[in-house]
C-alpha cells in the first residue's frame, strides 16, 4: 500500500473539489522503482547541493517554462528524488511541491543516464496502474532527462508531461538534453553560492599565498584554497606522477 499517495490530487493545475468518498478508496498499486546501486552516495550528493526545500529560483522556473514550450507539453518539472519523496524545485502546470517517491516516474528515470520516454502510460506495465495515471492528473506521456551532477550520480530529472500520448522529435529530445545540462550547471552554482556567497561573481585568489577571498555575513576574509575546495566538494589526497618522481625518484604510473 502506498502511504499518503492520494495527496497527489494537489497536483492539479487548477483547484478541484474532492469527492467525499475518494479518500476512502484503497490506493491503486504502482510498481515502485528499484533503488540505484549507489543510493547512499546519491542521497549524500543531493544533500550537499543544499537545494531541497529552498525558495523558487527564477532561472529554474524559466527552464521548465522553456521545456514545456519546446516539447509542447502542459506540465514540466525539475524533480529531485529524496529518500521517500520527489520534490519539485521548479514546476509548470502543477500545484503540488512533492509526491511520494513510490509513485514517482522520475524515480525510474534516475536509474539510467539517458532520457526515459513513456509515450503512452496505458501501454507500459510499470505505470498503467499508477495513481498519477489512473486518477488526476492522468499522465499519459512522460519524458525525463536525468540530472547528473557527479559521475554516475543522478539526483533527479528535468521532465515534461502530457495528458495524451505523445512522441518527441529528435530536435525536441536534444533540446531537453541541453536544458537538463543547464539545470545541472545552475545547481552547481547554487551550491557554491550557498557555501560561499558571491562565488558566481568570480574567485579572487592571492597571487602570493593562494588564499581565496570570500565574504561571510558581509565581512571579507581569506581562506586557504584547499579548505575552500574541501567545503565545496569531497577531497582525497594523493600525489601526482610529476611530484612523486621529483620527491621519490620513482616514476609513478599515470591513471
| Uncertain residue ranges | 1-28
Report the strand count.
9
CATH class of the largest domain: Alpha Beta
CATH topology of the largest domain, by name, is Beta-Lactamase
Mean pLDDT, rounded to whole units? 82
User: Helical residue percent?
Assistant: 25-40%
Report the sheet with the most strands, covering strand number, pairing sense and barrel closure. 6 strands, antiparallel
Tally of helical segments: 7
Distance between the termini: 48 Å
Q: Structural class of the helices, strands and pairings?
A: alpha+beta
Q: Assess the beta-strand content as a share of residues.
A: 15-25%
CATH architecture of the largest domain: 2-Layer Sandwich
CATH homologous superfamily descriptor of the largest domain: GAF domain
Following the backbone from N to C, one meets helices and strands in this order, namely HHEEEHEHEEHEEEHH
Amino acid at each position: 500500500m502506498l502511504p499518503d499517495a492520494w495527496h497527489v490530487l494537489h497536483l492539479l493545475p487548477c483547484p478541484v473539489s474532492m469527492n467525499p468518498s475518494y479518500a476512502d478508496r484503497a490506493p491503486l498499486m504502482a510498481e515502485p522503482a528499484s533503488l540505484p546501486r549507489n543510493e547512499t552516495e546519491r542521497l549524500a550528493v543531493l544533500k550537499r547541493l543544499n537545494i531541497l526545500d529552498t525558495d523558487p529560483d527564477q532561472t529554474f522556473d524559466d527552464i521548465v517554462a522553456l521545456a514545456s514550450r519546446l516539447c509542447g507539453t502542459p506540465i514540466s518539472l525539475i524533480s529531485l528524488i529524496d529518500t521517500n519523496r520527489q520534490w519539485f524545485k521548479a514546476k509548470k502546470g502543477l500545484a503540488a511541491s512533492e509526491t511520494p517517491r513510490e509513485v514517482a516516474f522520475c524515480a525510474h528515470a534516475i536509474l539510467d543516464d539517458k532520457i526515459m520516454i513513456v509515450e503512452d502510460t496505458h501501454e507500459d506495465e510499470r505505470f498503467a496502474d499508477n495513481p498519477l495515471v489512473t486518477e488526476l492528473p492522468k499522465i499519459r506521456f512522460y519524458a525525463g532527462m536525468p540530472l547528473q551532477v557527479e559521475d554516475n550520480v543522478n539526483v533527479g530529472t528535468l521532465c515534461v508531461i502530457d495528458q495524451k500520448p505523445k512522441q518527441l522529435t529528435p530536435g525536441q529530445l536534444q533540446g531537453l538534453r541541453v536544458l537538463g545540462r543547464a539545470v545541472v550547471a545552475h545547481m552547481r552554482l547554487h551550491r557554491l553560492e550557498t557555501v560561499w556567497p558571491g562565488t558566481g561573481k568570480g574567485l579572487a585568489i592571492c597571487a602570493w599565498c593562494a588564499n581565496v577571498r570570500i565574504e561571510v555575513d558581509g565581512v571579507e576574509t581569506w581562506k586557504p584554497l584547499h579548505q575552500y575546495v574541501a567545503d565545496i566538494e569531497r577531497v582525497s589526497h594523493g600525489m601526482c606522477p610529476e611530484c612523486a618522481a621529483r620527491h621519490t625518484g620513482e616514476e609513478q604510473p599515470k591513471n
